[in-house]
Design a protein that fits this description.
Blueprint: H1 3-31, E1 33-41, E2 51-56, E3 59-63, E4 70-76, E5 80-86, E6 93-98, E7 105-107, E8 111-113, E9 132-135, E10 138-142, H2 154-158, E11 164-166, E12 172-174, E13 177-179, E14 181-184, E15 187-193, H3 194-197, E16 206-214, H4 217-222, E17 230-237, E18 243-254, E19 258-269, E20 272-284, E21 289-303, E22 307-330, E23 337-361, E24 365-390, E25 394-418, E26 422-448, E27 455-483, E28 493-517, E29 522-525, E30 531-549, E31 553-570, E32 575-595, E33 598-609, H5 613-616, E34 620-624, E35 627-630, E36 638-650, E37 656-667, E38 669-678, E39 684-693, E40 696-709, E41 714-731, E42 734-752, E43 756-768, E44 795-809, E45 813-828, E46 833-851, E47 854-866, E48 876-886, E49 892-899, E50 908-913, E51 916-922, E52 928-940, E53 943-944
Parallel strand pairs: 1-7, 1-8, 14-17, 35-39, 38-41
Antiparallel strand pairs: 1-4, 2-3, 2-5, 5-6, 9-10, 10-16, 11-12, 12-13, 14-15, 16-17, 18-19, 18-52, 19-20, 20-21, 21-22, 22-23, 22-51, 23-24, 24-25, 25-26, 26-27, 27-28, 28-29, 28-30, 30-31, 31-32, 32-33, 33-36, 34-35, 36-37, 37-40, 38-39, 40-41, 41-42, 42-43, 43-44, 44-45, 45-46, 46-47, 47-48, ...
């Protein structure tokens, strides 16, 4: 081999080495490619038990997401690949992907699985279900871990969840917050109102219940979560149960002149939802006749690929006579008052309402529009007799009649669009409202000598008051978010958000007062009690926020400036009053998943509240001659601060700890300044004015511990609330404060077997009733005279209670019973102590199938009560019924019922607010015999579900 030949071979070897290195480099580059993504359901809740399959050619690799739904794989050696995701109860997902040139990390869009539309056979799950799972902004309850019997509704299921409260009217509370918004499978569901449907939907269709901190549809689209979230209930149905028909129709007649009928049906097929209802009935309620009539029609559906919308019309017409009696004990620094009031009359009202909405969402653009219009009319006729004793002795006989009309319309539009890195949002809304009211008032005041008690004067005054109010409001908003560059090797999103909102409102208020002269029989206008007032309000808010979002934590921090301008023009006096205010407040929203089963969230927000036209008018409102109201044109806009936080910890066993706190304070809060003035007859008159005040605050905390035993067959719960508050009050132009601590503890236990459930509960509560909120801020709150005074003396209420409840379900027999005891004690800062009132209640009820389609049911209740201001017999209530079912699924029934066979029922109740304890009772018949025909429809996924009435 010569030298030339050797050089040629060296060149070939060098070239081969270079080619091999390039191949290795290319192979290494391919093998280091990474993909990442997230698997959720349509409600954006993670599905950790899903299986993610990465397909490259003939090779398939299966991985599982973590508990947050996130997945990633970093050794992919192909340019093209497919992703297939499967999960029990959901439709399969499959999509092809490709890497771009020089792309090393492919970040997939969130994969959202839809519930399967196929009806699956029942599967016996032998694995131990996890009762509770906590995620960022979501607490999820697994229905399989709780007792669900045939005939149970969703409310029966919710009552078993720790940290959740459901009352007799189907109001749902989680911690300190009331939950009103409802969705099913992450989608709007008819009216979206929780209490409208948790009693109608069967628990048997539920797979999971999710309690979500909802920041609104715009926040879900943009990912920018600001402000205080509201609690939303999302029902995740079992596979194939996302469609159905439910409702009922009934007709009845009874011995209390009762006759009527109703029908209410809902058709549901995922996005397509239609409902219709009609109701008409009349009865004698003891004070007179009561009539109700209503008609409603609602429909919503998806049209096109990315749009959905709906419309609805509702009409209500009601009239009812009433006969009420109240006895109030009022604490006051000048001396305590006792008011005994009897009130009879009749109320009538009707309302027409129309609504329409349309939404568009193609993942790049979100548009939401809506319109609501309504027209209402009402009339009222009432006569009352108020007897006052204690601090003063006087009687007030009042009669009044009124008629009012109130049209209103409002609309809104919201558009958000995602650019490559930035997001822009624009929103606008308007509202227009009107109210016209004509009122005739006749007041007869009886003055007594405060020493001898002899009648000194009988004063009669007749007045006609005509008032008209018209208001208009316009809001606009702008939001721009620009994304910041992501750090390497992270999925975190960072952005700066700039927002602006402005509003303009105007209102016109005219009041004309005419007085009838008993001596001349002439009617004359009283200028001092009449006015014509125009008000204009402008508010603006600008803010800047920094947003950070990652798989396990997110936060939003910012600063907001709020400006308000109030201008009020008195046409009668030719004077204009103006007021300008500017407030600054930070904003904070923080959420973090600390570890598996541990979440923490914090929220802070501030907002302004302008005084209303009635609080601003510097005129004397003398609808009640003993309680004259005067507005204040110099009122400032109030600004409230709110801070809340939650910590949730759940173990795989289902043991859970839920802790919450909230604090609030208000600057320049609008309160009443009450002054008692002597008159020429030795009596007293009350003058109420409005002022701004500082010093009001409240701090509260709540906690709930739940321990399930033996796969949730037994459970023990311990919960409580503690709080401190201060209520600053103006009385006789002097500022005073009412401080108090609230304390509540509750221990409960539950035993759940296949046919038997037992619940037991002990509770202890101490409440200082100083946090009366806006109870004294209403312009027309008092028409009966002196008494409802925001005095710096408050009642402290101590309540102890115990209850035991059980349910037994056999093939032909169902029994339910409970025993409860409650005692309440109210004491004030003075020597005034209201007698302790106690209630002991024993209840037993059930139903029994006599022979196939024949049934009988009964309920009994013994209530022992004492300590009320009224004579309080302890009634024994007996109710019975017998009936027969028809049709194959027994959906049609006819029954004969008797309620309160012994006619011992009464309607006595006690309420405590601030410095007032009130005992009330209404006159109404309780013994009624009735014949009832009922048809019930409850079909989901092709199956019939029975829903028993509570």
């Amino acid at each position: 081999m010569n030298r030339r030949t050797g050089l040629v071979w060296l060149a070939k070897i060098f070239t081969l080495i270079i080619l091999c290195c390039c191949g290795v480099s290319r192979s290494s580059a391919q093998s280091n490619r990474r993909i990442s993504g997230k698997v959720t359901d349509t409600a954006k809740v993670s599905i950790p038990d899903a299986k993610v399959m990465i397909i490259t050619g003939k090779d398939t690799l299966t991985i599982s997401p973590d508990e947050y739904g996130d997945f990633s794989y970093s050794k992919l050696n192909a340019d093209h690949f497919s992703i297939k995701v499967v999960a029990t109860g959901y439709d399969d997902f499959k999509l092809d992907y490709s890497f771009a040139d020089k792309e090393k990390h492919k970040k997939l869009d969130a994969i959202r699985l839809k519930l399967s539309g196929r009806t699956l056979q029942e599967v016996v799950v032998r694995a131990k279900p996890n009762p509770i799972r906590v995620m960022q902004d979501t607490v999820e309850y697994n229905a399989a871990a709780y007792r669900v019997e045939e005939g149970d509704n969703v409310a029966d299921l919710l009552k078993q969840f720790p940290g959740m409260e459901v009352d007799g009217d189907y109001n749902v509370k989680v911690g300190e917050k009331t939950m009103t918004k409802l969705r099913v499978n992450g989608k709007d569901f008819f009216t979206n109102n929780v209490k409208d449907f948790i009693a109608k939907l069967p628990a048997g269709i539920v797979s999971k219940i999710q309690v979500i901190d909802d920041f609104g549809d715009e926040a879900n689209f943009t990912g920018i979560k600001t402000g205080e979230p509201q609690k939303m209930l999302n029902i995740v149905t079992k596979p194939g149960m996302n469609k159905g028909a439910f409702g009922n129709a009934a007709a009845n007649g009874g011995t209390n002149d009762m006759i009527g009928g109703m029908a209410q049906f809902n058709l549901w097929n995922d996005n397509k939802q239609s409902s219709a209802n009609v109701n008409a009935n009349t009865s004698n309620n003891g004070a007179g006749h009561s009539q109700q009539m209503s008609i409603g029609l609602n429909h919503s559906d998806k049209f096109g690929k990315n749009s959905n919308g709906g419309f609805g019309y509702n009409f209500n017409d009601n009239s009812a006579a009433f006969n009420r009696e109240q006895v109030s004990e009022i604490l006051n620094p000048e001396g305590n008052l006792t008011n005994h009031n009897q009130n009879v009359g009749d109320n009538k009202g009707s309302t027409h309402s129309l609504h329409w909405n349309m939404n568009f969402n193609n993942k790049k653009t979100l548009m939401m529009t809506g319109f609501n219009g309504s027209y209402g009319s009402s009339s009222n006729l009432s006569t009352s007799m108020l007897q006052q004793s204690g601090l003063l002795r006087q009687d007030l006989a009042n009669s009044s009649s009124s008629n009012s009309k109130s049209p209103s319309a409002n609309g809104n539009i919201n558009i958000s669009h995602k650019l490559k890195k930035n997001i822009i949002s624009i929103n606008a809304s308007f509202s227009a409202n009107g109210n016209s009211n004509a009122q005739h008032i006749s007041t007869n005041t009886l003055y007594y000598d405060q020493v001898t008690g002899a009648l000194r004067k009988d004063s009669l005054l007749k007045r006609d008051v005509d008032s008209k109010t018209n208001s208009r409001h316009l809001n606009i908003g702008f939001n721009y978010s620009f994304g910041l560059k992501r750090p390497k090797d992270t999925l975190a999103r960072r952005s700066i958000n700039i927002n602006y909102s402005g509003s303009a409102g105007s209102s016109a208020n005219d009041v004309d007062t005419y007085v009838f002269d008993n001596r001349s029989n002439k009617v004359s206008r009283v200028d001092s009690l009449s006015n014509s007032f125009n008000s204009v309000t402008y508010t603006q808010s600008i803010g800047i926020n920094y947003n950070y979002g990652a798989a396990k934590w997110r936060y939003n921090i910012g600063l907001n400036a709020n400006a308000a301008l109030l201008s009020n023009h008195d046409l009668r006096l030719g004077q204009t009053f103006t007021n300008n205010t500017i407030n600054y407040a930070p904003s904070l929203n923080y959420g973090r998943t600390l570890a598996l089963g541990k979440t923490l969230s914090l929220n802070y927000s501030g907002n302004t509240q302008s005084p209303n036209i009635n609080q601003l008018q510097p005129i004397r409102n003398a609808q009640s001659l003993q309680n004259i109201l005067v507005g204040n044109p110099d009122l400032k806009t109030s600004f409230s601060h709110s801070l809340s936080g939650n910590f949730n910890y759940v173990q795989k066993s289902g043991r859970s700890l839920m802790v919450g706190m909230n604090a609030a304070t208000t600057q320049n809060e609008i309160v009443t300044d009450v002054t008692l003035l002597p008159d020429t007859l030795g009596s007293l008159k009350q003058v109420t004015r409005y002022e701004n005040i500082n010093g009001n605050y409240q701090v509260n905390g709540n906690y709930s511990i739940n321990i399930p035993i033996k796969q949730n067959k037994f459970s023990v719960s311990y919960s409580g609330r503690m709080g401190f508050s201060n209520r600053a009050i103006l009385f006789n132009h002097q500022k005073t404060s009412g401080k108090g601590a609230n304390f509540s503890q509750q221990v409960s236990g539950r035993m759940s077997f296949k046919k038997l459930m037992v619940n037991a509960q002990l509770s202890y509560n101490v409440t200082n009733n100083n946090n009366t909120g806006s109870r004294y801020g209403s312009f027309n709150y008092a028409t009966l005279g002196i008494g409802q005074i925001a005095a710096p003396t408050f009642f402290k209420t101590t309540v102890m209670g115990a209850s035991l409840q059980g349910n037994l379900n056999l093939t032909k027999l169902r029994l339910n019973g409970n025993v409860s005891y409650s005692t309440s004690h109210n004491s004030g800062a003075t020597d005034q102590v209201i007698p302790r009132n106690s209630d002991i209640s024993l209840n037993l009820g059930g139903n029994f199938t006599i022979h196939k389609t024949w049934f009988t049911d009964f309920s009994s209740s013994k209530r022992i009560n004492y300590g009320y201001a009224f004579p309080t017999p302890s009634p024994l209530l007996l109710n019975m019924g017998v009936g027969k079912t028809f049709l194959k699924n027994r959906s049609l029934s006819m029954s004969f019922r008797a309620t309160d066979l012994l006619a011992q029922g009464n309607t006595i109740s006690r309420s405590v607010s601030g410095n007032t304890v009130t005992d009330s009772r209404n006159l109404q018949p309780t013994r009624v015999f009735s014949l009832n025909l009922n048809y019930s429809l409850s079909q989901f996924g092709g199956r019939n579900f029975r829903v028993d009435p509570d």
